[in-house]
Amino acid sequence: MTTALLRTAQELHARPREGRRAVVMTMGALHEGHASLIRAARRIAGPDGEVVVTVFVNPLQFGAGEDLDRYPRTLEADLKVAEQAGADAVFAPSVDEVYPGGDPQVRITAGPMGERLEGASRPGHFDGMLTVVAKLLHLTRPDVALYGQKDAQQLALIRRMVRDLNFGIEIVAVPTAREADGLALSSRNRFLSPDERRTALALSRALFAGRDRHAAQEALRARAREVPATQARAEALSAIGESRAAADAHAVATASPGGPAAVRAAARQVLDDAAHYDPPLELDYLALVDPSDFTEIGDDHTGEAVLAVAARVGATRLIDNIPLTFGPLGAAS
Questions:
Q1: Could you read off the pLDDT of 24-78 as tens digits, one per residue?
Q2: How many angstroms separate the CA atoms of 38 and 174, rounded?
Q3: pLDDT digit string (tens) for 243-252?
Q4: What is the edge-to-edge ordering of all strands in the sheet holding 281-289?
Q5: Quick check: helix, strand or coil at residue 328?
Q6: What is the DSSP string of 158-223?
Q7: Backbone angles phi, psi at 289, to 5 degrees
Q8: For residue 37, which of 68, 144, 171, 233 sits 20 to 30 Å off, Cα-Cα?
Q9: In the annotation, is 34 catalytic?
Q10: Who's near 249: CB < 8 A, 6+ residues apart?
């Protein structure tokens, strides 16, 4: 297939349209993570639908001193990635096309959720992000739009905006794509030196440590639930030669310092160690939050959660996260 390059909304609206239109929004510098989004969009749109990839570096979501000018712009290579992944069109508008007349006076406000974590570190970022997403949703007119789980707070805010403002568009999340060593794919990874990249692996290792601690804890809880806490339980445990080990496991599984606190502690240990690497990892935040509003969860939380981290390595700021579930299905994530 040949992927069309479109520069104006008029060109996009003039295209014949059959079936569902699925949109993947990017700021360019496409990599395998974007390709996985495009392939998912292709499956959703089906053979009779259309996949549109937007490429637009949005100036509204870059704050003072951030890397707007440094952000990679690789449109020719992006076209090849989009085509190979199954896109029908790449919509790459100019700033004037998206914001005719200059910066918009009317903007979307992210609200309280937009002031937490990434919003606290990057004031105004989410207002700019939601404004351009709203603009691009209106310009591309999709039936479904796909976003990566890697930007979990962005995803949550887009879902909230679409629901609160009645956009009538389906929002689909696609799991984070990772390198073989666990590093989350990001356009900013190219800025890392080899030594910085080794340090950056601490982000995913911390998340996996938290996930593994959670899974182990849930497995211990499951074992404890299998045998009633009676004399029969003690006899059964003795019969298989692990009375002390199982008793210890039961104590660990039911102790109050477990749950979210244990997950945070396991992840933080990895990050604390990385602060002494050369070059060091400079932690911005580690948070275990409710995905509905990105507030920290309590030790009695049940249901979905997101373990999120942001840090700087050298001049490059990176984010990552993994989803977790607390409760009867807590080991699944």
A1: 999 999 999 999 999 999 999 999 999 999 999 888 888 776 767 777 789 999 9
A2: 10
A3: 555 555 554 4
A4: 281-289, 303-313, 316-326
A5: coil
A6: HHHHHHHTT---EEEEEPPPB-TTSPBP-GGGGG--HHHHHHHHHHHHHHHHHHHHHHHHHHHHHH
A7: -125, 160
A8: 68
A9: yes
A10: 220, 223, 224
Cβ-contact 155, 173 below 8 angstroms: yes
pLDDT band at 257 (very low <50, low <70, confident <90, very high): very low
End-to-end CA distance of the chain: 36
Total H helices, total E strands in the chain: 11, 9
Extract the tokens encoding 165. Answer: 């403002």
Catalytic entry in 34, 125, 214, 250: 34
Taking only Cα atoms into account, the Rg of the chain, rounded to an integer number of angstroms, comes to: 23
Which amino acid does the sequence have at 129? M
Q: Which residues contact 326 (CB under 8 A, 6 or more apart)?
A: 214, 259, 260, 297, 301, 302, 303, 305
Where is 75: in which H helix or E strand?
helix 75-85
Q: How far apart are CA 54 and CA 138, in angstroms?
A: 12
Angle between helices 75-85 and 32-45 (to 10 degrees): 40
Q: How far apart are CA 169 and CA 102, in angstroms?
A: 27
105 sits in which H/E element: none
In the numeric block, which tokens belong to residue 183? 């590093």
